[in-house]
Amino acid sequence: MPEKADVAVIGAGVAGLTTALRLAEGGCSVLVIDQGDPFRGGSGVNAGTLALQNKNAELILFYQRAIAEWRRLDQALDRDIGYVCRGGLRVAESKDEAETLRREVVRQKELGIETEWLEGNRLRHHAPWLGSSISCATYCVDDGFASPLLAGRALVKAALGAGVGVATNREFLGKSTTPNGYRLDTSAGPVECGDVVIAAGAWSGRVAEHFGVTLPVECHVNMLSVTRRIAQFMDNQVVTHIGGRLTLKQYPNGSCLLGGGWRGEGGIETGRKDLNCERLQQNLRLHADVVPPLKDATILRTWAGFEAETPDHWPIAGGFDGHPRLFVAVPAKAGFTAGPIVGRLTAEKLLTGEMPPFARPMDPERFLH
After folding, report:
1. Could you give the CA distance from residue 64 to residue 338 in angstroms, rounded to a whole number?
2. By C-alpha distance, which of 360, 351, 308, 307 is closest to 327?
3. How many other C-beta atoms are found inside a 10 Å radius of the C-beta of residue 272?
4. Strands 88-92 and 136-140
5. Are 212 and 222 contained in the same domain?
6. Is the separation of the CB atoms in 159 and 21 below 8 Å?
7. Per-residue pLDDT tens digits for 36-77
8. Per-residue pLDDT for 2 more than 90?
9. Beta carbons of 341 and 358 less than 8 angstroms apart
10. Is residue 163 in a domain?
11. Do 274 and 158 fall within a single domain?
12. Range of the domain at 194
């Protein structure tokens, strides 16, 4: 591994690798440092959902660009990332949930997001596998998913092919300032660099402290389950819930991935990612009620993973006025979806000094004032 680079990226997840890839394309020598293996933090243990219609209204246009960046990556990378876009359903059960769903349809239409309202016979014809508790749903053609496992392999391969150094199992310990930038102290020795990009996901706040910068990044522990392969019945559509309690997809190989942000136990303070069996049962029961064919499916594996979150739910992308050689690329909730666009925006900020107007809410300076 090189011990000197134009840019050091701390974190080898989806944001860090896409930042590094764009910087390498822009002519920089780049070294990515990660405390573990690449794509094995939050990026590699999430549900891979790339849904649009389940995002908050103030963020939905950003996530529209984020999904477009995934489509671009799917075409640009020479290795399969498991990207599937067959549309998705956002379902409602109770009367109150149906009313909330109608209000969101109106708001999304005002923003230019088109969805199709489904209820009664139209709903049953579109998705006969939904349970009787589902009263209505909206269909969005832009909803889809990718495979975190395949996407991680593809991004690592692309980064290495572009000349990026990827230093794994190298913990960041601290920094000192040099006339040309920074000297980073790691568990495998020092690294000299000009610029630094913090892309450490849930650990980004801790990394930022070494640079005298405050990033209020919280860590959530989410639980996921995957079933054994069963016969295709969902036509690769994504299912989300208006109550935010469910995400479901069936991969082309037949296995189903069950998520929805149900919290496990632990955090980065302890390094623990443990299951909460009571909440897990509630999650599985809800999936079986919403999609009854899952009642006969066998759970192959259940796990928990870290997810970064910010107080205002916006990602963090850009630089600092008082630290001209320090940059940040931290996707917030739904970080897998946001990762590539956050990485690309941060790289463009480093290369050109500019950020597009739509990215201004992601400026890390918002936490300093």
Report:
1. 10
2. 351
3. 12
4. antiparallel
5. no
6. yes
7. 998 888 888 888 999 999 999 999 999 999 999 999 999 999
8. no
9. no
10. yes
11. no
12. 4-44+149-216+312-367
